[in-house]
């Protein structure tokens, strides 16, 4: 029992020494402004946080996420075709694709897919 405790204490001590040595060795003396600041989507974090944000960019990102998730839902459809009733599979698949196409048409008709006017 004491051997296990001794080995555990030695392991913890060695790993602590190695981590401390790595921290001391990796410290850089000269830090640049660009490297020490976090990257936030191209915005300069040193300026005011109250800058106007393009809502078109946000809208395009949301539309991308919605259609990306729908594509992930479409991928298993051919696999489930073999294990399900063909009539119900065809009905569900065509309804899902119809909803997708109608959503895409609506976004296109509203002008949401155009980046610049």
From TrEMBL:
Entry's transmembrane regions: 6-25, 57-77, 89-108
Membrane topology: Multi-pass membrane protein
One Gene Ontology cellular component: NADH dehydrogenase complex
Enzyme class: translocase
Molecular function in Gene Ontology: NADH dehydrogenase (ubiquinone) activity
Location of this chain's protein in the cell: Membrane; Mitochondrion membrane
Catalytic activity reported: a ubiquinone + NADH + 5 H(+)(in) = a ubiquinol + NAD(+) + 4 H(+)(out)
InterPro entries hit by this protein: NADH_UbQ/plastoQ_OxRdtase_su3, NDAH_ubi_oxred_su3_sf
E.C. code: 7.1.1.2
Keyword Translocase: yes
A family per Pfam: Oxidored_q4
Record's keyword terms, sorted: Electron transport, Membrane, Mitochondrion, NAD, Respiratory chain, Translocase, Transmembrane, Transmembrane helix, Transport, Ubiquinone
Function: Core subunit of the mitochondrial membrane respiratory chain NADH dehydrogenase (Complex I) which catalyzes electron transfer from NADH through the respiratory chain, using ubiquinone as an electron acceptor. Essential for the catalytic activity of complex I.
Family of the protein in this entry: Belongs to the complex I subunit 3 family.
Full protein name: NADH-ubiquinone oxidoreductase chain 3
Species of the source: Reticulitermes virginicus (Dark southern subterranean termite)
């Amino acid at each position: 029992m004491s051997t296990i405790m001794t080995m555990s204490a030695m392991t913890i001590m060695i790993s602590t020494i190695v981590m401390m040595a790595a921290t001391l060795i990796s410290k850089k003396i000269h830090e640049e402004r660009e490297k020490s600041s976090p990257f936030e989507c191209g915005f300069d974090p040193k300026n005011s946080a109250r800058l106007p944000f393009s809502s078109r960019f946000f809208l395009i990102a949301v539309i991308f996420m919605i259609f990306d998730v729908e594509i992930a839902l479409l991928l298993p459809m051919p696999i489930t075709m073999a294990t399900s009733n063909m009539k119900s599979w065809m009905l569900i698949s065509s309804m899902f694709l119809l909803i997708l196409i109608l959503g895409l048409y609506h976004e296109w008709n509203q002008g949401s897919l155009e980046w610049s006017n």
